[in-house]
Amino acid sequence: MSGQTEEPLDIPTYEDVKEASEIINGVANRTPVNTSRTLDKELGVKCFMKCENYQRMGAFKFRGGYNALYHLSQEGKGKSVVTYSSGNHAQAVALSASLLDMDATIIMPYDAPKNKVAATKGYGGNVIFYDRYKEDRVAIAKEKAKAGATIIPPYDHKHVVAGQGTAGKELLEELLGKGITLDYLFVCVGGGGLISGCALAAGELAPNCKVIGVEPEAGNDAQRSLETGQIVTIQPPKTIADGAQTPFIGKIPFEIMKKRVEKIVTVSDAELIQGMKYFGERMKMIVEPTGCLGLAGLRKLVKAGDIPAGSNCGVVISGGNVDMARYCDLIST
User: Fold this and answer.
1) Distance between CA atoms of residues 316 and 292, nearest Å
2) From the candidates 46, 61, 158, 210, which is the catalytic residue?
3) E strand or H helix at 51, and its extent?
4) Cα 330–117–111 angle (5° rounding)?
5) Residue 86 designated active-site
6) Sequence-ordered list of residues with C-beta below 8 angstroms from that of 65, at least 6 positions apart, any chain
7) Is 61 noted as a catalytic residue in this protein?
8) How confident is the prediction along the chain (333 residues), in pLDDT tens digits per residue?
9) I need a surface site. Which of 22, 50, 280, 285 has the fewest CB within 10 A?
């Protein structure tokens, strides 16, 4: 026996979400909450969509990225960071680093969307590629960090989770200001940072709201993890939802999810394309496949009869970063 033990997890609370909200105020966009009478009529519920596709760099990830790097800058822990991401966290860290006068190295898969790679480089990130099906991105990041950089993981980090939770906080507060309390909140699941942060916000602002995660059928590791009570690792799933191609959820998000997430449902790529078409045709929004997970999950549960008619349902649209040629191909199928 080596006697080595893992360090205790630094689990964020709602107070950390409140602090993050103050830190990103005036830096991140306060994104709109949109509705659609057509969608409400189709589903028989009232749907409120938090549009993080209008966030800086096009996705919710800016919230957590900026909050984490801001804390790092205040703690005096160096001027260099390294992270790994298929695209949105990569852009978030690169942009946040440029705003805070820091250097950022990003480990990205070879098959990452070209537009996300280009944007990451455009924000000043130093991109290093790897094969997501054969190489370990965490091991690569640790090797790069030996030169003195701090690793900022995409979801398994206290300040990242707290920052992502501000999206849920804003949605809930805006609706409460109108006298509306959510009954359900649908959130996409990749590594678990967004849903765990939103669950913290919901637990404080709408305790009776049921938080439901949605992930691709090809990658149901979060669903299996909640069902078994331990983190399940899978092969990187092959799905059009590149933001959810994670092999496992984070330890910090998982601890929150076990207590605050009602359940996880899965949807097909075809259902995501249906959502992309709806957002484009009816709401005039470009939404990436991962950003359609929440709506697809809501539609699936309504169809199954699991959501009572007239329920107030929140949906977090996680982002809109999609290669336009790829977008046109998908919505043409």
Assistant:
1) 9
2) 61
3) strand 46-51
4) 60
5) yes
6) 89, 92, 93, 95, 96, 152, 160, 163
7) yes
8) 444 456 789 999 999 999 999 999 999 999 999 999 999 999 999 999 999 999 999 999 999 999 999 999 998 777 899 999 878 999 999 999 999 999 999 999 998 888 889 999 999 999 999 998 889 988 999 998 988 899 999 999 999 999 999 999 999 999 999 999 999 999 999 999 999 999 999 999 999 999 999 999 999 999 999 999 999 999 989 999 998 988 999 999 999 999 999 999 999 999 999 999 999 999 999 999 999 999 999 999 999 999 999 999 999 999 999 999 999 999 998
9) 22
Q: How far apart are CA 238 and CA 258, in angstroms?
A: 26
Of the residues 21, 80, 85, 86, which is catalytic?
86
pTM surpassing 0.70?
Answer: yes
The angle formed by the CA atoms of residues 284, 287 and 288, to the nearest 5 degrees, is 155
Q: If you compute the radius of gyration of the chain from its CA atoms, what whole number of angstroms results?
A: 19
CA distance 157 to 168: 17
Helix 88-99, helix 61-75: angle, nearest 10: 40
- Give CA–CA dist 234/320, Å, rounded: 26
Q: Are 29 and 67 in contact (CB under 8 A)?
A: no
Token pair listed for 126:
């130093």
